[in-house]
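The protein record minuted underneath.
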Amino acid sequence: MNERINSLRYQLYNLLFVSSRWGEYASILRDAKDSGYSFLRLDEFVELVRNNQEIPKPFLILRHDIDTDSPSALRFCEIERELSVKATYFFRKRTWNVSVIKKVLASGHEIGYHFEELATYAKRHHLKSAKELQQHLIPMMNILEANLVNLPGNITINSLASHGDFANRKLNTTNSLIVQSPAFREKLGIVYEAYDKDITTAYQNHVSDRPYPLRFFPRHPSALIKKLESFLFLTHPRWWQRNAISNIIELVNRVKEHMLW
């Protein structure tokens, strides 16, 4: 009973009362910089890996998935600009804010597409098994292609990162299933998908932020910095700044999707 009460309390806190943690983010980057880390955008790292070039160590790859609250991406951008470091930002279709994205690009960061077309299609067409998904790969690929072409702002996209939707967990399948074909990627102009095995193998250590009370998984980034270990640091604006309206909208959308699926 106490576990359930605590779980509800944490959910309420993460929905409505997340405190600002921008100072903590700046401190992590500052510690890494003072410790001699090289900061790399994900596209820069991929180029080094695939050209068999030497990667400066220790390195830190900064990746932001903008799942909700697009304007909060600019807080990451502001801190990184002050510290003269670069990052990679992945925006979903629903968070594709041209004004925000152009400001991020102007600061020298990489912009990619946080895609979820497989999960969206599965929910819309009530597909609930991996076998069913296999029969619908072509239409899902066509939708991804159309969405990329029609993204506002005339912004060139060379990279993708699969979004983790509740439908993906239920289906035990990532959105990456629809971008396995090299020919399809070449047609779209896609150089890499963030979860390509050669990329994840090359950086090995992956630290992601988490909602309260966990904060980070599998460990605090400072633990790696103290050991001068290289890693990718994945963050999401919603865990660093309170935005109740954005979080409530996201929750309502998820509940509706659950009900209609």
Remarks:
- Residues 122 and 132 are 9 Å apart (CA to CA).
- The chain has one domain: 21-260.
- The chain is about 50% helix and 15% strand.
- The mean pLDDT is 95.
